[in-house]
Amino acid sequence: MKHPRKTRLELLANRQGLSLAARLNPAASDLPHEVTERLRAARERALASRKVQTTRAQASYSMGETLVLSRGDDERMGWLGRLSSGLALLVLVVGMLGISEAQNELRARELAEVDLALLTDDLPPAAFADPGFLQFLQTDEL
């Protein structure tokens, strides 16, 4: 897998690290053996830590490519991939519109049934607005 391009900040940090290492290397030969061994061990730990971080970054980058439907810098998705993504999006939108229309139709039918029950009932619709009638209905059901 190709590693993503380095940002300008990473390039500047690498350049500064290399210049610092160039200045420190000549003085390294004057250090005692104990100090050089500690530095070597620290360098190995830092490199091992960096390898773990790089592996994690590459894994998340590859997961990002799999989950994202946008074009990246390297443009890996061909015209067939773009077409299939567009079709999937179109199907999703049409499905959402269909569900919305079905819910609106269901709600209209429920309201029509209530209106039909009110209009075909023996009582006038004004009776349902009377608070005493609602109390009568509640006591009548018991």
Plain-language structure description:
The chain is mostly helical. The chain has 2 domains: 8-68; 86-142. The chain contains 5 helices and no strands. The longest helix has 42 residues, at 79-120. The radius of gyration is 36 Å and the shape is elongated. The relative contact order is 0.04. Residues 68-74 have low confidence and may be disordered.
Q: Shape from CA axes?
A: elongated
What is the count of structural domains? 2
Major β-sheet profile: none
Radius of gyration: 36 Å
- Give the low-pLDDT segments: 68-74
Features:
mainly alpha, 142 residues
Summarize the structure.
With about 140 residues, this protein is mainly alpha-helical. The protein has five helices and no strands.
What layout of secondary structure does this protein have?
Elements (H helix, E strand, L loop, with lengths): L7 H21 L4 H35 L11 H42 L5 H4 L1 H11 L1
